[in-house]
Amino acid sequence: ALLIRGASDNLRCPNLGESDPTGEGGSAQDWAGRTIFSGAPTMVRLLHVALAGALLFGGADACTNLLVSPGASADKSTIYAYNADSGSLYGSIGLYPATSHPQNATREIWDWDDSVFLGVIPEATETFNVVGNANEHGMVMGETTFGGLPELDSHGTGGIMDYGDLIWIALQRTKRCVDAIKLIDALVQEHGYASDGESFSCVDGNEAWLMELIGKGKFEKGAVWVAQKVPDGAILAHANQARTTTFDQNDPDNVMFSPDVVNFARKIGRYPADASDADFDFSAAYDPVTFSGARHGEARVWDIYRLLLGKTDEAAGKEFEEKYLDYVRGYDLTSGRMPLFLHPPEGSAKFSLTVADAMSLMGTRLEGTWFDNRGIDRPDVGAGSGHSAYRWRPLIWKDTKGDEFVNERTVATQQTSWNFVSASRPWLPPAIRAIQWWAPDDSATSLRVPVYGGITRVPYHFADSVGQLPGAAVSPKDAPKADALNPSWDSAFWIWNLVSNLCYGERAQLVTEALREEMGPLQRDLLDKSVAFEAKVVQEYELAIDESNAAKKKSIAEKATAFCEHEGETAFYKWRHVFMKLFALTRDGFTISKGTTPQCVPGGTKVGCTHRLLPDVAETGYDAGWRDRMASVGEGADRKKAPGGSSCGDECGRLEEHKRLRMNKRRKTKWEAIQSS
């Protein structure tokens, strides 16, 4: 399974001529876990948006999140993993520099989904440095969209605050998750909400929180919400389905909620007037589970939970898998929800997850389960001859008779815009307190690079001169000229996509195995380098007693920036080289490897060598099972069948064998040199 070996629907989440300074990649090894260091838009604009939507937003997007409390991680950090899945977004790292703003300064708000202008709000006097989804104080945030009741979609109701801006504003203005939650509430109540149901994730080094929020649509301004802290020692996953059911309304240290979260549901007829507040179920009222919510959302949570339990206690993992199978298949939505938080099985050792463990969990694709897409344990024409774990969109499709069918939605998916696994370590200096192991594209096939929350420049190949939102853009000279439509050999987004796309389709299984052999050593090397870098920084930080605190912070931030730039640059060229190696491996349907006969050396012997390189070109095309399917009755099998035997005897057989070999420039016997010279 990918978890052990290796390493969604409209996003509400959000030159070859150069020299390669790095040379070859790594050698073949499996993955190993490592513990990291202890106003209204014009009609013209609307028309452009509509056209862009038809072209770019036709695909389905979604996100998957994993939160690990300090007591469930190997080094007491809070770990947060995020797959930002979208076929339309350009995966890049944004930068909001720390800034002092003049009095009465304002900030523009642009919708992250539709990229349209929503309005302006007052800016804070001071804002923190934010890179990607982390700030300079070790706080990291992300989300998944659950949507919820259509009548509560606040998009287009006049509200200004969309979910994307809420994340990055909270990162710029707060240091702790509890303060981020309070700020989000204050902003949507004052300026109105402009999105629909969102599950916000937040970690700050000491705590991990889930905040589930939905707007009030055209009923009222603002939003209702519930936020819960992940209990220490537990983990939590969520994926496009509200997971908050009933909640403790008398535990302010661990649970926060809007004052009207229950009464608003009563007001719109979603909760009985005479029912107890204590029995209120947030998801049942605002995002009831549907077939797609279970099959395409909760099934991803189920996959993560069963694997994590199974790693701790195999029997407990199997029991969990079987208990909730009918629910996540979407066949029995009344059998009971999965637990919000996952705790270790009673009597078992505590969870002890590393960053590498989280990487593997976020790369799972339902392998070895009832949902397994690969066509290995049972026939599945959608897997193709390469046993692909992926399916092209849409997730729900119809045959020519109008009957609906389902494609599975896995944690790792082909249309991911970017993904990261972060760790927040409160014992480290602020600039390196949060580290994001960041990559564009598919979380199962992507090498992740280190990006600290306190760096002040984005590694060139991962930067964006336009930005996910305008404030996150860097100077055009500091980023490749590329976007979600226009490729560049200098863009990490496009190079990572080239690599990942080789793992889909007719050679999926072969290329995926080869990719793991390349990716494992490279990822381990980057993890090890970050450990060494952090240890060195901490030693220098503690010894630099003659420096002021501000000078220390600036020095560490610059060193972290230089480290991330160097490792990002090196990883980029290595990964571009991996693309060329994998492309060569399966060129033209063959499996191409190094030949057994060496090239002749100029001035050396001419015996036992060849003038030019002759690789081994194996005709591995299809496996036996797929050949049997091609030979089965139907789809022209009768016209594919070769004659079984020959009326002209052995001579015809001999000639037929030779003809087949020579048509492929092969011979039955290997050529041997007669003499040397």
Overview of this protein structure:
This protein is an alpha+beta fold. It is built from 16 helices and 22 strands. A hairpin with a 2-residue loop joins strand 8 and strand 9 (134-135). The longest helix is centred in the C-terminal third of the chain and has 37 residues, at 549-585. The two termini are 54 Å apart.
* Relative helix content: 25-40%
Q: How many distinct helices?
A: 16
Uncertain spans: 1-60
How would you characterize the largest beta sheet?
6 strands, antiparallel
Shape: globular
Keywords for this entry:
alpha+beta, disordered N terminus, six-stranded antiparallel beta sheet, five-stranded antiparallel beta sheet, 677 residues
Topology diagram in text:
Blueprint: H1 2-5, H2 43-56, E1 62-68, E2 78-85, E3 95-96, E4 99-100, E5 106-110, E6 117-122, E7 126-127, E8 130-131, E9 134-135, E10 140-147, H3 163-173, H4 177-191, E11 197-203, E12 208-215, E13 223-229, E14 235-238, E15 255-257, H5 261-267, H6 282-286, H7 291-312, H8 314-323, H9 325-329, H10 355-361, E16 396-398, E17 404-406, E18 416-424, E19 434-440, E20 449-452, H11 492-501, H12 508-543, H13 549-585, E21 591-593, E22 616-618, H14 624-631, H15 637-640, H16 649-663
